[in-house]
Amino acid sequence: MTDAATRDDARKPAQVEAPLLRVSRLNKSYPTPQGPVAVLKGVDLTLARGESVALMGESGSGKSTLLHLVGGLDQADDGEIVIDGVDVTWLSDTGRAALRRETLAVVFQQFNLIPSLNLQANVAFQARLAGRFDPAWTDELIHRLKLQDLLERYPEQLSGGQQQRAAIGRALAVRPRLLLADEPTGNLDEATADDFMALALDVVAATGCAFLMVTHSERLAARLQRQVRLSAGQVRLSAGVINQP
Amino acid sequence: MSAKWIFFAALAFTSPALAQGYAGLGDDAGGFERVVPGKPLVFPQDFGAHPKFRTEWWYVTANLTDETGASYGVQWTLFRQASAPGEERQGWANQNVWMGHAAVTSASEHLFAETFARGGVGQAGVTAQPFRAWIDDWNFSAQDNAPPDSGLSRVKLSASGENFRYAFDLVADGPLVRQGDNGFSLKSDDGRASYYFSQPFYKIAGVLTLRGKEIKLSGRAWMDREWSTQYLAASQKGWDWFSLHFSGGEKLMLFRMRDTSGRDFRSGTWISADGATQKLDRDDIALTPLEQTPVAGRSVPTRWRLQVKSRGLDVETAPLNAASFMATSFPYWEGPIAFHGSQQGKGYLEMTGY
Amino acid sequence: MKQIFWTFVTLLSHWRRRPGNFFALFVGLAIATALWSGVQALNAQARKSYDRAASVFSGGGAQSLVPTSGATIPQELFVKLRLAGWKVSPALEATVLVRGTPFQLIGVEPLTLPRGGQLGGLVDGGDFSAFFAPPGQVIAPPEVLRDLGAKDGDRIALDTGKSLPPLRSSAQAPPGLLTVDIGVAQTLLGRPGQMSRLILRQPPDNDAPSLASVVGNALRLLPAGEEEADLKRLTESFHLNLTAFGLLAFLVGLFIVHAAFGLAFEQRLGMVRTLRAVGVSTRALAAALFGEVALLALVAGGFGVAAGFWLASALLPNVAASLDALYGARVAGGLTLDPTWLLSGLGIALVGALVAAAGGLAKALRLPILAAAQPFAWRQAQQVFMRRRAWLALLAFGAAFAAYLWGDSLYTGFAALAGLLFGAALLLPVLLSAALRLGESFSSAPLVNWFWADSRQQLPGLALALTALLLAFATNVGVGGMVEGFRQTFAHWLDERLAAEVYYEAAGAPEARRIEAWLATRPEVLAVLPSARTSVRLSGWPTEIFGMTPHETFRAHFPMIDQAPDAWEALQRGDGALISEQLARRLKLGLGSSLDLPTASGIWRVKVGGVFPDYGNPRGQARIDIDALTRHWPDAPRVSYGLRVAPQETPRLIAAMQAEFGEKIVRIADQAAIKKISTRIFEHTFAVTTALNTLTLVVSAIALLASLTTLGDTRLAQVAPVWASGVSRRRLAQLEFLRVLALTAATAVLAVPLGLGLSWCLVAVVNVQAFGWRLPFEIFPWQWAEILALALLTAAIASIAPILRFVRTTPAQLARIFANER
């Protein structure tokens, strides 16, 4: 998929005020030695443009699975995922790679920086892959994320908080329309997590992308516009006030 | 006389000593013995090789006819050339190189062969008594049943090449002939010379195998023996040489050394039927080319007018085969001729440097 | 493309952070390529030389007359033939050494040389007098001058001390040769009046006398192509041996590459997942991974090819000396860089790298994005394969045994060898693992228990390096045993075989008779033992018929493998023959068998009365009574002699003979000199083997070093908990050191039986197939001790760097590792 096509697709649905992300009746099960176990059972979820949503639930509730499916990291069994008007449910491996590269970005709990690249190269990495590297924007991100003094450091020389800030920098450098985060503060202490969230929300707002974050923390979830709670593979509760479609 | 060996020498042995001599830097004989007047020839020793001189040859030409009267010419030559003076070294270190040429000429064909040998190992050589000159399986030597002291008077001659092979018996019916001043043969005004004697009185008979066909031939043969150290002057580029058998039994040898200065050196010997000789001087002799023939990419005079004023000789020569060219390593024209005019007969013509 | 580029760059960034790993990969691949392409270069150079040797004389349609027996003939035969109308030209060929590098020298006679062939160019327009007038000239093509490091006019000294005439460079000179005048060659080579062949411009006319009527059967006309064919047949097994060693070394190198790639892929599993997560497609990842392998292969392969070239140049003198001495095959000149060879070297590096990386590549490409990053999952999975490995090992041993039982060629010999080595390589981790498990079950102290368990966990990571070591050690034990066994056997055999004190060869039969008469008057000469020889072909195989005197000397000393009680009596009667082991094996003859020998007057049947060892002779040999030989081959020259002399009289007799006869004696030497020459020939042969062997060992040591270095990082995480539990760093370092030593020592111990198997395979299977003779199988325990010491030294050296790194790790770092990587 070319950049131009992506932009075209993005513009048309915007005119009809369609949601950025629409997940309908999504099912997913995993094979186990004891037979298949259903993780998601008919999940529905919608995200508006620029909206930030916290995805909560107990361990095993399926929230990470949902995030992975939306992020094109895994393949759903049934249902539909539409991002920016494009049905991405059944994309090929190459199509999903392009989706991950160009339309959305993911921040992981384990940071997943590339150990052999320094911080600057890590931040620029996905944008370069996508062919969208913008030095000015990357520079701005680095400053907003307070990483400017750490550019030459390698991941192993960074603290957890620093690594996660670099990871969100990498994600946003590509200017995604949707940022996904899978327990980004799970490996951080509380103070660092708070600092991180403040910075993250700041740059997400500056980017104008939608934000879907999986978290255990009620306190952090509360900082997002809306909270969705998953239980036993289904959406149990959706709370929030602003920009509810 | 003959001297393609000069080319041989010039091309093959461009040793510093020779180059100096060629450049005309005095009479540098490079350590070889020099040819001086007044030294008598000694037989049979002089039949053999003279390794103290730079070069020498044994040269036989024959004018022959078959049973139908058709004419043939045969040539057999052995050259010796030394690359360095001094005592002959043993084995491969020997400084002599031997070269053999053999040719057969008919009106329609001229076939020739060439072979080389190093001295010191026995592939070629000459012994004086009993006389034997050989290179490979080519021989010019005393007949097997000839008395040991018969010298050159009863000899056999054989050679072979591609498509030809010959074997002849030769018997001399006249004496050996000393050329020039009792064997001292001057070649230039500045004193270059050779020792030179001939046996022009051979009767020859034998068999030529030409392209597998045996032809019985007989006729007259002429042998030249010549040795020298300095032969050509720097300005001399080649020569024209005639050996003539008159029908009346007299013989004539004439040569001209062509000089770039335009002043050719001419000389000759009139040989009466009993072997008595008269030396012919430059002004007594006139050699005039009459007709040029293109052969082997060059133009060679193949018809001549020959005059010897003191003898009233005035003849025109014609080649048996105008293409008698020896395209050997050192090429020259050599072939049988016939002549008519004040006298008539047959002979051989050799021309070099064209 | 952008995707592939950035993925490629990112993959490569790994190596910058892991130079140790890169070093292992690079060195492994470079050395593997070097050994392989070095051997290929040697073989190619040899083949080129054989073709060239033949084409020098066969150019322009010329043919060759060669001696029927022996290496040279007197040049009188040349003159005889010329005077009989045969247009022949003499030549004398030999290999000369210049500063250890072999060059092929030929002496020719330019005036009689046929025009048109490779040598004809010399004649056309050449300056003959400078060529053959003293001191003469050496004419050589510019590339040979370059190899000699000489320029026009230089005089090069041969290693014999004699000086070549001044050099003249000529583009027309025969390629790869030093051409001199025949006279110069005879002097340089100490062969006055001798030549090794006559070049025949064209067959003589029908009316020319026949060859036999001129020279008897001293010469024979070499059929076109026979020379190349003979050389190739005789040297084939030598080259196959070289190739096999090259292949073995290449495989050991690939083990390293495989290990290094495996570790690199394992360490980058997380990176690959991240790459996939941020949108690198499988296709882009595959392209980048293959590109990375290709780039590494080309860079390391390029170095390897260069090193191979150097290696081949270094080994060439020994290879050339062996080939010349064993087969009379002349290999000469500096190596030239052949583009085909260069490309094939890079190609083999690429193929090798791809094969070595195949597992890792497949794993990386099939890697699911979401599986939890577990760096050691792969190795644990490998342990699951232990049982499968054991079965495969049994299969390989079975195949090796089958190849031995039913095979009857050099190829099956090597197949048996390969099966043995492959099986052992597969079995090693299984055996080591079992040993460690045993140790674990016998230990109860916690630290000791941890030591065993942890060693076992380490094993998969070290297995490849240890396997490479196993192969190298085993090869060392095997080849070392074979070489040493041969050295002892050969020395003993030479002592018996060279029973006479003086050996000489007369220039011709009349000279030989005069010398014999003179010797009869010398009281110190106890016995004169003439010999004569001629060549025949038995079943197409070049075989020498050797006429000897059945003197008491031989009856007492001549070494035999097997003999009938009346062997010598039968020989003396003229109806019995002794045959060489090679001939017996090739023609499947035994005691009492009949052997038909083709003579000029028909077939002559003799009975085999004994079989004798004839080490190193590529031709067959049958020994008969000398008078019987002269009866059946009247033209065989009786010019070689052995003399029994009181040892203290030997030098004086030789001096007297030389003074009396001068050049009438072509060669004369005492027993000691001949022994020295013979021994040197074999030292040359085995120098090549030993060099390749040593290099293989070095490669394995590097493999171990590389494995330990790359394991170093992950070791910290594994050791940190033990440290946290209260074991000092010093103690832990000691344990680490001990572990490597123990594993290496265990490998070395296991290498001994494997090496013995290998040695047995070499002497009893490969050698018999390759050379036609069998060596006694002997064992040399002191060699094993050496190997063990070498193994421990290797291990100690290889483990020093990682252990130092461990000792230098600060407690704070360990604490952090402990906290983070739990």
UniProtKB/TrEMBL annotation, chain A:
<dbReference type="InterPro" id="IPR027417">
    <property type="entry name" value="P-loop_NTPase"/>
</dbReference>
<keyword id="KW-0547">Nucleotide-binding</keyword>
<dbReference type="Pfam" id="PF00005">
    <property type="entry name" value="ABC_tran"/>
</dbReference>
<dbReference type="GO" id="GO:0022857">
    <property type="term" value="F:transmembrane transporter activity"/>
</dbReference>
<dbReference type="InterPro" id="IPR003593">
    <property type="entry name" value="AAA+_ATPase"/>
</dbReference>
<dbReference type="InterPro" id="IPR017871">
    <property type="entry name" value="ABC_transporter-like_CS"/>
</dbReference>
<dbReference type="InterPro" id="IPR003439">
    <property type="entry name" value="ABC_transporter-like_ATP-bd"/>
</dbReference>
<protein>
    <submittedName>
        <fullName>ABC transporter ATP-binding protein</fullName>
    </submittedName>
</protein>
<dbReference type="GO" id="GO:0005524">
    <property type="term" value="F:ATP binding"/>
</dbReference>
<dbReference type="InterPro" id="IPR015854">
    <property type="entry name" value="ABC_transpr_LolD-like"/>
</dbReference>
<dbReference type="InterPro" id="IPR017911">
    <property type="entry name" value="MacB-like_ATP-bd"/>
</dbReference>
<keyword id="KW-0813">Transport</keyword>
<keyword id="KW-0067">ATP-binding</keyword>
<comment type="similarity">
    <text>Belongs to the ABC transporter superfamily.</text>
</comment>
<dbReference type="GO" id="GO:0016887">
    <property type="term" value="F:ATP hydrolysis activity"/>
</dbReference>
From TrEMBL, chain B:
<protein>
    <submittedName>
        <fullName>Iron ABC transporter permease</fullName>
    </submittedName>
</protein>
<dbReference type="InterPro" id="IPR023374">
    <property type="entry name" value="AttH-like_dom_sf"/>
</dbReference>
<feature type="domain" description="AttH">
    <location>
        <begin position="55"/>
        <end position="229"/>
    </location>
</feature>
<dbReference type="Pfam" id="PF17186">
    <property type="entry name" value="Lipocalin_9"/>
</dbReference>
<dbReference type="InterPro" id="IPR010791">
    <property type="entry name" value="AttH_dom"/>
</dbReference>
<dbReference type="Pfam" id="PF07143">
    <property type="entry name" value="CrtC"/>
</dbReference>
From TrEMBL, chain C:
<feature type="domain" description="MacB-like periplasmic core">
    <location>
        <begin position="463"/>
        <end position="650"/>
    </location>
</feature>
<dbReference type="Pfam" id="PF02687">
    <property type="entry name" value="FtsX"/>
</dbReference>
<dbReference type="InterPro" id="IPR038766">
    <property type="entry name" value="Membrane_comp_ABC_pdt"/>
</dbReference>
<feature type="domain" description="ABC3 transporter permease C-terminal">
    <location>
        <begin position="244"/>
        <end position="367"/>
    </location>
</feature>
<dbReference type="InterPro" id="IPR025857">
    <property type="entry name" value="MacB_PCD"/>
</dbReference>
<dbReference type="InterPro" id="IPR003838">
    <property type="entry name" value="ABC3_permease_C"/>
</dbReference>
<protein>
    <submittedName>
        <fullName>ABC transporter permease</fullName>
    </submittedName>
</protein>
<keyword id="KW-0472">Membrane</keyword>
<keyword id="KW-1003">Cell membrane</keyword>
<keyword id="KW-0812">Transmembrane</keyword>
<dbReference type="GO" id="GO:0005886">
    <property type="term" value="C:plasma membrane"/>
</dbReference>
<feature type="domain" description="ABC3 transporter permease C-terminal">
    <location>
        <begin position="693"/>
        <end position="811"/>
    </location>
</feature>
<keyword id="KW-1133">Transmembrane helix</keyword>
<dbReference type="Pfam" id="PF12704">
    <property type="entry name" value="MacB_PCD"/>
</dbReference>
